[in-house]
Write a structure and sequence with these properties.
The protein has helices at residues 3-15, 19-23, 43-52, 110-116, 125-134, and strands spanning 32-34, 39-40, 57-68, 71-80, 87-97, 100-107. The protein is α+β, with helices and mostly antiparallel strands. The longest helix has 13 residues, at 3-15. This is SnoaL-like domain-containing protein. InterPro entries: NTF2-like_dom_sf.
Amino acid sequence: MKPKDIVAQFVADIQAQRFDEAKALLVSDGFEYVGPNMRFVNPDDLMAYQFGMVAIQKALILRQLSAEEEQVFAILDYRTNFEPIGDVRLAVWFSVLGDKIQKIEAFYNAAVVENMLGGNFPQSTAKAAADKTAE
């Protein structure tokens, strides 16, 4: 499959809540997900987070998908059943290595997610230590 097809399948699997199939499209070693308010270096952690979001996920709409070699850029609408959030627009940059996704960088309004999670979101150890020191 081409990188663009791999990403399209990944998005479709997340939308359909086929997390095992989605995880199979991620590299197991050297994986990284970076978002504005969380970071995962293990595909299992990303899939656990996605599974936790199932309760509010109404739809994941792929609006645009563009590719340049192994770099794939997606624009998504994450529609929720959670009234205070509504819909979240996402810009996501995927780096594909061979036939697997190696890196995902997501760009969205982090304040919406932080408010929803009550500021209780996955964070790096360094940020958690800095926050604790600031208290």
